[in-house]
Amino acid sequence: MASANPSSDTKRTTATVSSGLRQSQTVRPSPPQTPQQQLRSGSFTSTSPGSSFRNEDDAIIFEIGARWLRAGFEGNGTPMCVLGIGPEESRRAGDYRGWIEGKADAAPPSHPVNAEDWTRTYELWRPNLRDVDLGLVEDKIERLFRDTYNQYLLTDAGVSRLVLVLPSLIPHPLLSSLLTTLFSRWRFPSITLLSSATMSATAAGLRSALVVDLGWAETTVTGIYEYREITTKRSMRAMKSVLQEMGRLLTSLASGDPEKPSADEISVGFAYCEGVTSRLAWCKSQAGDEAMDELSSKTVSIPSPTHPEQEYTDVPFSRLAEPVEKVLIAPGVPEDEFDDEENSIPLLVYNTLLALRPDTRGTCMSRIVFVGGGARIPGLRQRIIHEVSLLIDRHGWTPVRGKALERQRQRLRELRLATEKQASNREPEQPASADASSSTDGERPGLSKEEPELDFVEQKLRRQNKDIPVPKQGVLREVESLGAWAGASLATSLKIRGMVEIDREKFLQHGLAGATRDSEPPVPDRRSGLRAGGDRSSWTLAGWA
Amino acid sequence: MSRPFPYTYISCPCADTPVPEPGRKRKSTLSPQKPERTSVPAEDSQETQKEKDDDDEQEQEAQGEDEEEQTFDPRSPRSNFSLYPPEQLLYCEDCHQIKCPRCITEEIVSWYCPNCLFETPSSMVKSDGNRCGRNCFNCPACTAPLAVSAIENMAGNATQQGPWVLSCGYCLWTTLDIGIKFDKPTNIRSQLQKMTDSTAPASFDRKPSRTFGDLKSPLATFSSIDEQSNARHEEDPDQSAHKEDSAPPLGAEARFAALKSFYRTQINETSNSPSDPLSSEFGFSSPGALNRLMSLYASSSRLGGLYGSGNKKPKSKPPVMREALTASEGLRIADSLAEVEVIERLASADCGWNGVASADQRTEQSPDVRFVDDLLPLPVLLRTKRAKRCKPCKHILVKPETKPQSTRFRIRLIALSYIPLPTLRPLAFPSSSSVVSPTVPAPDLTALPPLRPIHVLLNLKNHMFDPVRITLATPSVTPGRVSSKVTVLCPQFEIGANSDVWDEALQGAEAPIADSRSATLRGGEKVPEAGKVWDKGRNWTTVVLEVVPGTLPGTDPLSQGGADDGQSPALPDEDVLEIPVFVHMEWEAEVQLEQQNVGKSSKPDDLVTRELAYWMVLGVGRIQAGL
Q1: How are the residues of chain A apportioned to helix, strand and coil, as percentages rounded to the nearest 5?
Q2: Which of A120, A311, B66, B255 is spaced 20 to 30 Å from A53 by Cα?
Q3: B147 conformational bin, left if phi > 0, alpha if psi -120 to 50, beta if neither
């Protein structure tokens, strides 16, 4: 099983091997069932194991985030509906202003609004729960799910199994609110949680990936190896900031003084701004690209920020690339100026790759998957990959930076040149592979001596596994994903059982606290959790704990 | 709020007794700013199974009382979810409680297309994707219904022959815009499906046939694997470009189908060990897995254990599930050229703002759609007729007739048959203003001058066959930053029973008519008096509320001279004057199933005193900004 990565080299440690094995077992249901397990599960509860799984309607899959909700049936390629969250959704019953007056949020607000307040009504929640009324969130969730069932899914709510696709780092109070609302409002027999990053990788056809989720409140970069989340890093540079920046840009356009550095107040409508962003925002694929420069000279006409219904204004096309670039890429800002939580996206991707072990890194870096709203912005993904490759060229794969180090490296390089001169007479050296730390280390000569041996094993392996294609490794490559929803639909329709399946009765008894304490439950437990028809005496929150 | 002033809303009592009980209590104990688990409070808060229910309910009631003491705030964002127009509420006769859409459960009775009103059998609903399988389509650009029409200029013959298109009568969009014509005017949906499956440009949707063909043909599979194995020697762009040339990228649905069949085959291949009867579909046999584990730990050479190489146990080498490698397996390498094309197209003159699909248009379409040219007509989403049940007691509240054409209901227990219908209207300015002709008495409700008292008449009309005693309570000052003073001049009164109209006419015809006549006669002179009912009829009573609208923040000229700097300008809708009124009604109901004998004199034995209490919100009007 661990040989899914046959080209991995001898640098791999024992720990990696065994953990790799465990990782692959976490997702693929390969349950060695021990009699002890069955005994325990049999004696613990009386619920019949298989009944809740097979002979049942299709499970319904919801992917819910701060701005969007996707819902549909398992086995479908696309969700039945995609619903945005906005102020219209939290109006009173019988309040038809949204229909009578037209979209109120397209028109500019009566007075400039603070950028935070500007987005507030459009979010279901925000990651900082301090200023979130969870009761209100519950109300919204309840109405959202009810409307989705009544308008789009057209089945009775609560009859069939529910699968929720959630980011693995969702605040516990929020998760609890969500589950409590769903369980107490409808009679869902069970709710399965699936991690959105893993599902995005699944929907790309991959087992290992680096999933870059350009989401609303934050961008998360998750390294996934054999379906298992290894590292996650996050940054506040995400679509919310892009939208706010676009709002500022449009505000300054509206005020007629494009050069004026606008304050943190926005005086254009949110929906209008979102429209502009979703239609015309783009990103230069490379910093200095001639073709792009040529494009930039063009102008496009967009509805005027002040009177979106009536007139159009001409905007240089290049300006529409500015917010995305400024917020997500942050060109020209030295790395050390970023705070911990606001790394630029290329740096974030690089750091995440750096945090992975070398073989995992090699696998992940050639399987970069972009999901989230930002992934739709044309040019952005290429730009990020490009910037990451620049970072790799500049730093190699070492986290150590500094002037003293530079000097030392210089010295070592000279030293190596000298030794290479001597060595070149005897044996021709292998060129450094693309992903290996080509830049530096002092042990370089030592490593290169081992390489022929390594290659010998590799070659032998390849000869043996001729028909098994070797996975691509060590090159930056982007793979497109169908998105987390599709991944969940895929996984569910293949009858793969999620790690976290929350039983109704058990949740209502103990809430989230009823989950097994260990975030890493003992292996037998986990296997029992993966049993096809198995009952679980205990349930776990796994990645959500 | 958007309803024309004045309006009334009723808050469903379920908001006071929150349904997700463990959650509510947990939230009060568990501070939300702690994302990490605090297990203890959560645990004890959520033990709400049957034996604990009573305790919790008592606590809940205690909490509820706390909440009731603080008045209902119509401005709080949560109130939007519990306020309903009175006519939208239901009433459960078993629980004797108002029921809103939040405290009922729904069951679908039938599915139908709102456009052609044909009922869809339940077996067809899912296969049709919850959409009309006939000829009903919505315009992808403006969502208006599309009409099937012939292309006239095609041929002059009178019998409408020739190709057909779907055209929108509102925005003049036709399927010709995306290059689609139909051969027959019927069964458009399947025609459209076929077309989007085969034609190249609009084929972003469903194309499973090609995919499966690729997978089934062994040659294709081999060649693609070869391709892939070459790929690791080649440069990536070449490879992907080559692929793009050979086949257009699959649409979302097709890729999904490809991925699905890929995973299926992988799972089958990796789990077809004959020794294991259990793993029919997925996973390895457990002995196999154990063997492998053992060999892993036993073998000194890890590589041997991992890859089954060497001479050790070649037969125990497990088949390995691999990732998708070719486009036919659902893999899609990002294509940077396509992105550049998209950017160029965005910038080009012929695309512009209107050439790009808006976010609203895109949510209805396949996720690949970016430009207007890619929009496909949308089959009309089906609707449902739903029966509604009370959530706690499962009593049926609403049961519609199955037929889509029928608007009748078999059962419908609407709340207005049980609670008095509140209506509000303004009274002329009191005598402080100069002489006003009685014909234009009402103040402009959309611009109420602040700090000037107005009188509004609250009429409560009883639809029950029993007289009802009503107690009204309002906070003297409305909650929120705009503090308007409210006084109910007569907070306690009775409303007569909804007896037969003829009864009234025959028995006490004189009194009420005279009453109302005298009221109309006196007209302007009638002065609202504290403690007295304004007007009264057979089954209705009107009382007067005196309201002094407060001043809007930021425009306050009188008070808070120093505190002005802290005041932000009025938020949207903050100028709406809404009065929360707590209604407590009490009546002597006859014991179940004996409601027919209305006119009888009451026998105290079979009478039950019932009471019902709820919050009501009266929307009086908008307050003017300045004086």
Answers
A1: 45, 15, 40
A2: B255
A3: beta
Instruction: Determine, for residues A490 and B263 on separate chains, whether the beta-carbon distance falls below 8 Å.
Output: yes
In the predicted model, what is the mean pLDDT of residues A186-206? 90
Tell me the pLDDT band of B442, cut-offs 50, 70 and 90.
low
**CA distances, A543 to each of A484, A498, A502 (Å):** 16, 11, 13
Is B346 within 8 Å of chain A by CB? yes
CA B562 to chain centroid: 45
- Do A381 and B339 touch, CB atoms closer than 8 A? yes
Check residues A520 and B127 and name the one with the higher pLDDT: B127
Q: Would you tell me which residues 418-457 of chain B have a C-beta closer than 8 angstroms to some C-beta of chain A?
A: none
Distances (CA, A) of B605 to A508, B464, B497, B590: 43, 20, 19, 9
Residues 27-46 of B with CB under 8 A from A: 27, 30, 32-37, 39-40, 42-43, 45-46
Identify which of B102, B126, B236 has the shortest CB distance to residue A477: B236
A167 near A456, Cβ under 8 Å? no
pTM equals 0.77
* B516 occurs within a structural domain: yes
In a domain, B63, yes or no: yes
Residue that wins the pLDDT comparison between B597 and B547: B547
Give yes or no for B320 touching A (CB within 8 A): yes
Instruction: Show the domain range for B467.
Output: 7-78+416-560+568-597+604-622
Distances (CA, A) of A127 to A135, A246, B30, B72: 16, 22, 17, 29
Cβ–Cβ below 8 Å for B340 and A32? no
The mean per-residue pLDDT over the stretch B580-587 comes to 90
Amino acid at the residue B332: R
Q: Which pair of tokens denotes residue B418?
A: 């049980």
Residue B498 has which token pair?
């909804």
Which residues of chain B make contact with A359, given a CB cutoff of 8 A?
A: none
Number of continuous H segments (helices) and E segments (strands) in chain B: 16, 22
**For chain B, how far is it from start to end, CA to CA, in angstroms?**
22
Residue to mutate among B346, B361, B552, with most A CBs inside 10 A, is B346
B85 contacts in chain A (CB < 8 Å): 93-94
Any domain includes B184: no
Looking at per-residue pLDDT, the higher value among A517 and B489 belongs to: B489
Query: Is the Cβ of A35 closer than 8 Å to some Cβ of chain B?
Result: no
Residues 6+ apart with CB under 8 A from B597: B590
First to last CA, chain A: 27
Q: Where are the beta strands (DSSP E) in B427-517?
A: 454-461, 468-473, 485-488, 492-495
Concatenating the DSSP letter of every residue in B500-538 gives -HHHHHHSS-HHHHHHHHHHHHHGGG----TTS-SEE-S
- One-character DSSP codes across A55-76: SSPPPEEEEE-SSEEEEEETT-
Kindly state the average pLDDT of the residues A411-416. 88
Helical segments of A316-402, H only: 322-324, 345-355, 358-365, 380-395
pLDDT tens profile B323-359: 888 878 878 887 778 888 888 888 887 777 888 888 8
What backbone torsions phi and psi does residue A538 show, to the nearest 5 degrees? -130, 150
User: Which pair of structure tokens corresponds to residue A332?
Assistant: 């020209």
Q: How many distinct structural domains can be found in chain B? A: 1
Burial B361-374 (b: 16+ CB within 10 A, else e): bbbbbbbbbbebeb
Are A274 and A243 spatial neighbours (Cβ–Cβ below 8 Å)? yes
